[in-house]
Fold:
Amino acid sequence: DIQMTQSPSTLSASVGDRVTITCRASQSISSWLAWYQQKPGKAPKLLIYKASSLESGVPSRFSGSGSGTEFTLTISSLQPDDFATYYCQQYNSYSFTFGPGTKVDIK
Amino acid sequence: QVQLQESGPGLVKPSETLSLTCTVSGGSISSYYWSWIRQPAGKGLEWIGRIYTSGSTNYNPSLKSRVTMSVDTSKNQFSLKLSSVTAADTAVYYCARVALYGDYSDIWGQGTMVTVSS
Structure:
C-alpha cells in the first residue's frame, strides 16, 4: 500500500493568513492526488483533484501543486469558513489511501 | 443535482454482518463507479472499495475477505456488506460517487454511524 503523510497535523492560523499544508506519498503517485475539506459532523468535500485542478464551485483561494511524492494545498487568504480538517488522498493505486488529516483551527 | 443517502442499521452485534445501502437520487447510477469509505470517530478516512454499475468491484486488500458490494440499477442503489464485524468496524460509513476521470470521490452521502456492540 502507498502510505500518505501530512504536515502539520494541526495548524493555528488567523483570518487572512496564507496557509500551506503538505502531503507526502511513500512512492510516486504522479499527479493522482485529491484534497478534501471536512467539517465536524459533515462528509468530506472535494476541493482539488489531479493535484492542482480546482473542483467546480470551490473558491479560487484554494490551490494545489506538486507531483511525484510531494504535494501542497494552499489557502491564499484564510476565511472563517475554512476552519476545518483537510485530507489528501492518492488514487494512483489501491487502496486509494488518505492522509491522516490536518486540522486548521483559529489562532 | 445528484444526492446520495446511506441507510441501514445503526447497531450491529459482533461477529454479525453489517449491511448498508446507498440510494442515488437526482441522476442515474449508470456509467459510474461508486465507493464506500469509513471513518472511526475522531480518526481518518479509510477507503473500503468501489463498484461499477456492471457489478465489477475493487476492494481494500485489508478488508477484502469480509467485504461484498453489489448494485441494483433498477432501484438506483448500491450496497455494502461487511461480515464478521468487531468493535474496530465501528465508524461513520460514507457512500460516494467516483468521478468520471479519476478515482477520487466528487459527491458524498452525509454518512451513517454504525456501532458494533452486543
